[in-house]
Write a structure and sequence with these properties.
Order of helices and strands: EHEEEEEEHEHEHHEHEEEH
Largest sheet: 7 strands, mixed, barrel
Radius of gyration: 19 Å
Mean pLDDT: 78
CATH superfamily: Putative cyclase
CATH class: Alpha Beta
Strand order of the largest sheet: 7-11-10-9-8-12-13
CATH topology: Glucose Oxidase, domain 1
Structural class: alpha+beta
CATH architecture: 3-Layer(bba) Sandwich
Number of strands: 13
Distance between the termini: 37 Å
Keywords: Extracellular matrix, Secreted, Signal
Pfam families: Cyclase
GO molecular function, one term: arylformamidase activity
Signal peptide: 1-17
Helix content: 10-25%
Strand content: 15-25%
Main location: secreted
Number of domains: 1
């Protein structure tokens, strides 16, 4: 497991991990204890209460990453993430500063997959998250809803009629409706890509970034097969565990920056996925023709 310390936490805080820009002003669901409107602290010094927000800039900026909590679902775990953060040094105990340490599985929360995730020879060769193409992770994207009654098959992909030239697609599924990322147990009934759906995407579209709203882009039934199709060519990036509640389908400008850490082949944790630390999407007013030209 990767051990992440305070400098990394500060990076996440400064970057406001996964941001989404949207013209929508509708209320956005927040985590318990979060406030979506006011970022100011109380005027009374004795009532310093931090405000944890999901929405910024009057609803224009929306965080679409999932906050790390002990109840955040973790891969193949029925008990959630559990304790992941410790206060290693405390000013109350005489230290000059407060110093935290974080330890968690890399396949947790909002994260990206690298080619080494399912290909051992890619892992050995060093194809980790540090080698992912930032150009693919940044640019115009299409947020679409997929049928709620099935996994993403070749038939589903055909029926979606994704415009030619589209390079980045965020797929919102039944996972969002069921709020699976807010349930601490790993649910194998999540919606994802079947092998034939992944194959159709690779062979018939220009999509290079695939975003989805649960811990895996591949359906549990085709977990290995679909991942192999997606990752074999090393040109498709999977962004998993997105928070896509109450966002209108449409064209957005996506910004997605994974944490940089070089993978060492000898590391047991392999560090093949990393949490997305900074991203944004801003709704664009393009027509379908303009969209195809700009993608």
């Amino acid at each position: 497991m990767a051990s992440l310390v305070l400098p990394l936490l500060l990076l996440c805080a400064a970057s406001q991990a996964i941001l989404m820009f949207s013209t929508s002003t509708a209320a956005y669901p927040s985590n318990p204890g979060a406030d979506t409107t006011d970022c100011s602290l109380s005027d009374k010094h004795e009532e310093l209460i931090p405000v944890r927000r999901e929405v910024y800039d009057g609803g224009r900026i929306i965080d679409i990453s999932h906050r790390y909590t002990p109840d955040l679902p973790s891969w193949d775990s029925m008990g959630g993430l559990g304790q992941f953060l410790w206060l290693r040094q405390s000013m109350k105990n005489g230290s000059i500063a407060n110093f935290s340490e974080m330890k968690l599985p890399t396949h947790t929360g909002t994260h990206v997959d690298s080619p080494g995730h399912f290909f051992d020879h890619y892992l050995d060769a060093g194809f980790d998250v540090d080698t992912l193409d930032l150009e693919v992770l940044n640019g115009l994207a299409l947020l679409i809803d997929v049928p709620r009654d099935k996994n993403i098959t070749a038939e589903v992909m055909k029926d979606l009629n994704i415009p030619k030239g589209t390079r980045r697609v965020l797929f919102r599924t039944l996972n969002t409706d069921r709020q699976l990322m807010f349930k601490k147990y790993y649910d194998t009934s999540y919606v994802g890509f079947m092998k034939d759906g992944a194959k159709w995407l690779v062979e018939n579209t220009d999509i290079k970034l695939v975003g989805i709203d649960y811990l895996s882009a591949a359906a549990h039934e085709d977990l290995t097969a679909a991942h192999l199709v997606f990752l074999e060519g090393r040109d498709i990036i999977l962004v998993e565990g997105l928070k896509l509640d109450d966002i209108q389908p449409g064209i957005y400008s996506v910004r997605c920056l994974p944490l940089r850490k070089q993978c060492q082949p000898t590391e047991v944790s392999s560090n093949k996925e990393k949490r997305v630390s900074c991203a944004s999407i801003e709704q664009e007013g393009y027509t379908p023709k303009d969209f195809e030209m700009h993608m």
